[in-house]
Specification:
The chain is globular. The strands form 3 sheets. The protein has a 6-stranded antiparallel β-sheet with strand order 5-6-7-8-9-10, sandwiched between helices. A two-stranded antiparallel ribbon has the order 1-2. It has a two-stranded antiparallel ribbon with strand order 3-4. The longest helix is centred in the last third of the chain and has 16 residues, at 137-152. The chain is an alpha+beta fold. 23% of the residues lie in helices and 23% in strands. The chain has helices at 31-42, 55-62, 137-152, and strands at 7-8, 27-28, 46-47, 50-51, 70-71, 81-84, 87-91, 101-107, 111-115, 121-124.
């Protein structure tokens, strides 16, 4: 998808063996990398005409796991949110076909990538020290409101 080498925080293994990437807090992407990942997911896993991710799994991510997700039991503020395939899926207002979700990638320090069902991605790069409270519902509402502007601007 056009992401070059990146920085990883890795485990320290005995005997000097290569460390394993710490996926929860160890990936250090650039802003450009985050945009590429968001575009890949919004394109249902297709890039350059090639399908590299399962479109059915991408659909399940936007459906909040489609019954297979883990409940977060209110750990992310007042929004209904489930955890599925490394995404925090925030429930939005119901659409015509039932509940809609905004899959969100949360990173250490308050970084957030919110993927909205209208094709808009909201990326927040922050530097907060723990404890970080991720209440991304305001950013999601902003992204939903920006969809008509993004379409007329060519995005």
């Amino acid at each position: 998808i056009g992401i070059g080498e990146t920085t990883w925080t890795k485990t320290m293994e005995p005997g000097g063996a290569p460390g394993m990437p710490l996926w929860a807090i160890g990936y250090c992407p650039t802003l450009n990398d985050l945009v590429k990942i968001a575009r890949l997911i919004h394109s249902e896993g297709r890039i350059g005409g090639e399908q590299i991710l399962s479109p059915s799994l991408i659909g399940k991510i936007f459906a909040g796991g489609d019954g297979e997700a883990v409940s977060t039991e209110g750990r992310l503020g007042d929004v209904n949110c489930v955890y599925f395939l490394t995404f925090w899926c925030m429930e939005l207002e119901n659409g015509q076909d039932g509940p809609r979700f905004a899959p969100t990638m949360l990173g250490y320090g308050g970084n957030e990538v919110i993927l909205l069902p209208n094709g808009v991605s909201v990326i927040r790069v922050a530097k907060e020290l723990p404890p970080v409270t991720h209440d991304f519902s305001d950013l999601a509402r902003l992204g939903l409101a920006l969809a008509p502007v993004a379409r007329t601007a060519g995005g």
